[in-house]
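Worked example

This section walks through a single chain of length 953. The input is the sequence exactly as stored; nothing has been trimmed or padded.
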Amino acid sequence: MKAAPRTALLTLALSAALGGFVGMPLPAEAKAKPAAGAAVDIPYEEFTLPNGLRVVVHTDRKAPIVAVNIWYHVGAKDEQAGRTGFAHLFEHLMFQRSENHDGEFFEPFKQVGATDQNGTTNTDRTNYFQNVPTTALDMALWMESDRMGHLVGAIDQAALDEQRGVVQNEKRQGENQPYGQVWDKLTRAMYPASHPYHHGVIGSMNDLNAASLDDVKTWFRTWYGPNNAVLVLAGDIDVATAKEKAAKYFGDIPAGPSMAQPQVNVAQRPATTREVMTDKVPQARIYRAWNVAQVGTTDIDQLDLFSYVLGGAKSSRLDQRLLHNDKLVDNISAMTDASQLGSNFLVVATVKQGVDPAKVEAAIDEEIKRLIAEGPTADELERAKVQSRAGFVRGIERIGGFGGKADALAQCAVYEGNPGCFRTSLANVEAATAADVKAAGAKWLGVGDHTLVVEPGERVALEELPSGKPTPFNVPAVDARFTTLPSQVDRSAGVPQTKTFPELKFPQLQRATLKNGTQVVLAERHDIPVVQFSYEFAGGFTADQGRKPGTANFTMGMLDEGAGQLGSLAFADAVERLGASIGAGASLDGANVYLSALKENLAPSLALYADVLRAPRFDQNEIDRIRATWIAGIQQEKVQPNAVAMRVLPPLLYGAGHPYAIPFTGSGDEAAIQALTRADLVSFHKEWVRPEGATLVVVGDTTLKDIVPLLERQFGDWKGEGAAPKVAAPADVARPQGVRVFLIDQPGAVQANLFAGEVTPSTMDAGATRFDIANGVLGGDFTSRLNMNLREDKHWSYGARSMASNALGQRPWMAIAPVQIDKTADALKEMNVEISQFATGQRPPSDAEVSRIRNIQTLSLPGAYETAAAVMNTVGSIVRYGRPDDYVFKRKAEIEAMTPAQVAEAAKTLDPSKLTWVVVGDLKQTEAPIRALKLGEVTVIDADGKPVAAKAK
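Given that input, the structure is written out below as tokens.
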């Protein structure tokens, strides 16, 4: 549940893409003009119930699941003075009980293994979504209809107070991050006080605190009727079934008033303005924004292309100049953020330390003016179009969740009244000329921008917007044209029970061996014309033993910074032109190199992939550039509460010298990265990135017969040099003698971030699955003990959780909770009690808790492998941990047979008397209360994990 950004349908496809530069010859196979792609579409049918509920249906039988996605056309824009934050508050309230279901909304969904379940609010709409097994569709529609038609009677003062507290902590959590005050600042600057977008989605705490129960109920009656909603059902369903079930569950809900939507008001600004603010950040960051055309216009689609050419690609105009040539920034991007009344065009640049932000501002301005004056080149425009289409193709692989097919249909239906509006956007992008893109930039990106510069310094609390006096509001009369159907559901009988569930299906794994010794594992998926590859190698962070910390991750990150005959920008250009995506990285126990290729461009994409693996350039100028940005990233980690904890906690758990005693961010430390040489990178690549003993996982639209010859062509003659290195299994370490508490100062923080950690047996341990279920009961799910205590009961946190990362050696187990600063010690005490009572058996897992986590883990499986990426991740884990091909079935059977007694025994894996705690927060407010708990030895450390001397009093 969260306040969501506003995004245009195609913006994500553009902004997530990588770019390139024309300037060097391409490999022969990469020169070919991309083949005409297969048509991409989301076929749908629609109908409307007599009460005004619009239903859109898309059939996709690839998995036995249905995406249920409902959008209410109400957001922050609809809030009057004195009632800001109501839409987002109601998103939270609607996850509570309803008149006919006494319990958390999530509970019945957990019992059937629902996936991708959440809700979000933005300026323009509120949405709720979940994927459920086909056999659980009646339950899902009963629940959604119950909160639409039967919620008011269940809203009481306790529910209002509870969710008000949760929202306050959500607001604190956002503001507590570096640069966390920026978006409120920008919103207030970009729109006048009278504009619906002037205030943020979370709203004013003053308004929320002043909200009465009557105010809240009136808000619901006004906006959450069926005639102000769109229901999308996508997946294993047809329109006949949808008509029957929609009428059954929603047909008797009376319509609400027909509320007029605000008029489009882009609010182009008459003058250019700027402001400067300070924050506890390591480097300055520049935000420059314009108000531009609203969603559903040709202009916003053309501005998407403009943003991509300007700063949305690796070799965009801004990247080339400021990152690669002038080396003034550590990162820079341009993007559109589209919405109903008007959109924003944004340029964001993180300035290198020691560089005058004014110099960066001037360069940005020059590049924008140059692109407006010249327009994009034919090649730039073509690459932007290819990436847009490729992003859309990849995005519609998912039927549900945030950004899936159901979301695309709902967004179009709500904003434009046409579920198929994405077709118009795709056509607009395809038809755009260089002159069109140039004209769009000239029209919208002139006078009227606002620049906000965040400089290192003290954080100044952002004042709440003054609370306006709410005007009396009477709910308008309902339009007489809306009628209801006879009730078909006896809601007093409760939530429909799901008796049967679909069987788990996992692609058969097919195998082959390349001439170079690499094992190929193929899982066919023919849903979209995309093929994904992951070349899996041993080593990972553990291969840094005897090397400089961070070598593995830095080396892998450099592989696609130029390969074969192409330098960094030219290589990115070649990848982008094919609509491909290539990347590499390392983790604790391994490394991998990844390719996602459009089937139409498979051969030339594989040629580039082969160059990355076999012939990375490691150009010194690129090493120097990445090194500087990498070190800046480490400094950013040290001011981010979660990241700094992930840097210091692993060495505390494993002890100096252990392979896992490293920042889990994989970034190493500044001194080591600064000392890395080209020879270090070449040596690591030579030893660890080699075909012998490696596995190439392939998932997607191909067959073994088709893919093996292509792979042999690129990799058949690849051979490693010298003897292949081996990594011994990391040695087990002893837990500490007692509880330790480490405090990291974050002056001025409005939240504290609590972390508890302990080493647990390896993923390879026979009891690993039982411990996973035990962890699920304690903190592995929204309904788990830690979250229900700190969020739902105490209202001190936006969310608390626990997790155990996979590892060949001892796994790191962690419990994590961001909490309001004045409840730091109280929350730590509560976490400790929950962990202790669970681990010692004082409060063992109940039958209901085990059943819930069992259902989450097993009944969700038929829908868990909806995407090729999900399949690839599972196959990768089968390879990494030496699991059998039918591992997913064996794990499912083990969980189904698991008893509460076994889970209780697994809970004893944790020893609360030997926990290591890390608390990141304002020491002035946290240190004394934590010491007073007397949990164990308390030490103040810095962001590098080094003890800080006590200040003289």
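What to look for: The mean pLDDT is 92.
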